[in-house]
Amino acid sequence: MDAPTLNLRPKLLIVCGPTATGKTELALHLAEVLVSDSKIYSGVEIVSGDSRQVYKNMDIGTGKGLPKGAKYKISNLKFKNKTIGYYEIDRVKIWGYDLVNPKEAYSVSKYTEIADEILKNIWERRKLPILVGGTGLYIKSLVSGIETISIPQNKSLRRSLGKKSAPELFEILAQLDPVKAGSLNTSDSKNPRRLVRAIEIAQWKLKRIKRKKTYQKKNLDSVFIGLYAPKEMLEKRIQERIQERLKKGIEDEIKRLLKSGVYWEDQSMQSLAYKEWKGYFAGSKTKDEVIKNWENDEKNYVKRQMIWFKTNLNIHWFDITKPVYPNDVEKMVKEWYISK
RNA sequence: GUCAAGGUGGCGGAGUGGACAAUCGCACCAGACUGUAAAUCUGGCGCCCGAACGGGCUACGGGGGUUCGAAUCCCUCCCUUGACA
After folding, report:
1. What CATH number is given to the structural domain containing A124?
2. A Gene Ontology MF term for this entry (predicted)?
């Protein structure tokens, strides 16, 4: 992946934006037009940049949008001795779904490791990957990398820190790494999860000062396409999508998950479209309440996504309520692809 | 009609004589965030003035009263719910 010259920088097209904007549809559309339009494209494949679609058997709630007969195919790509599969929709390969089962914990680091392999493989086959997703951090980690990503979790440390309050954690961090502690903003300095990770990193660094950094900055030629819509429009789409998912059988999907041994406490079940049902299955919530909560959670999620995208990435935004927007995207992407 | 329990901010729901513009949850607004990121976390949230310490006004169903002081006590009216008729 290390390219000696600028010309050989691998190209990566990114389609991102908040939930319910039709990112995958656009990507599929782009795949089609790019391939059919010109001889330069030997093919386009989609990679999901999403923290929830990695879970098997969670299709409806995470919005994988798989057509009825969609089959998971095994590729000859392997990661840590495990095969990696993909789906094919409209003859386009989609990677990054169904990477783990819902009992497993997941994180950016796991995602990045495997997604890097997938991307490398796509580039080796001289195809253009389109990274599609709404998990900003995951996308950013693929594009720019994360410096401390190779610093592993320390389970026993986490366990011992588990019950400490934010001020206590902050105190511990301040002892280990005063600079880091001082650099935290008011929000993070009160965020137990962040503090624990910061302590984890600080401790790790203290232990191995001499270890050389393995971190390498990535060198990609990438463009960010962002999809958005006015708030009211998005809210309407969210409502419609919820109805759709109810019809598709989200309730049964959850029943199946629970039956197979997945707990509400599992990370996968903290996902939107799933977590809201907990009270319902416990008998303390009506379905209407579930739907109301679900809708609210989706709306709030969109807000957080937009804030993150706006402040963290340099994105070319497209309003999906403009009928011609796919053409605009197409034009832009083609220019970008041909350049250099 | 009688009895009982109630009427608090957009909603739910605390407070039951001063520390109350009123805990908390939801909603809403503005944000943070490089190993759980669909997660986690922060701030704001009656109106007006002020950069800020702060100040002013209006508010706990309506009206009236007691009191230095009332969302909290008393009277009365209106409304809701439950029970008995």
Report:
1. 3.40.50.300
2. ATP binding
Determine contact, residues A19/A134, Cβ cutoff 8 Å. Answer: yes
Q: Are residues A63 and A179 in the same domain?
A: no
In whole angstroms, B48 C1' to A308 CA is: 35
Q: Would A175 be classed as within a structural domain?
A: yes
Q: What's the number of domains chain A is made of?
A: 2
Structural domain contains residue A19: yes
A229 HSE (CA, 13 A, CB side) = 19
Spatial CA neighbour of A49 closest among A125, A133, A105? A133
CA of A168, C1' of B47: distance in angstroms = 40
Do A130 and A14 have their domain in common?
yes
Q: In which domain, by residue range, is A186 found?
A: 155-207
* Residue with smallest Cα–C1' gap to B40: A193
Q: Same domain, yes or no, for A139 and A161?
A: no
A52 within a domain of the structure (yes/no): yes
* Bases in strand B with any atom closer than 7 Å to a protein CB: 26-43
Same domain as A222, residue A109: yes
Summarize the annotated binding site of A for substrate as residue ranges: 19-24
pLDDT of residue A68: 82
Looking at this predicted complex, what is its ipTM? 0.92
The answer as to whether A169 is a domain residue is yes
pLDDT in tens, A266-317: 999 999 999 999 999 998 888 999 999 999 999 999 999 999 999 999 999 9
**Residue A177 CA from chain centroid, whole number:** 30
Query: For A251 and B80, how far is CA from C1' in angstroms?
Result: 37
Report the nearest residue to nucleotide B27, CA vs C1': A296
For residue A88, give both structure tokens: 């094919």
pLDDT in tens, A72-120: 999 999 999 999 999 999 889 999 999 999 999 999 999 999 999 999 9
Answer yes or no: are the C-beta atoms of A58 and A260 closer than 8 Å.
no
By C-alpha to C1' distance, B41 is nearest to A191
Q: Estimate in Å the CA A151 to C1' B21 gap, whole number.
A: 49
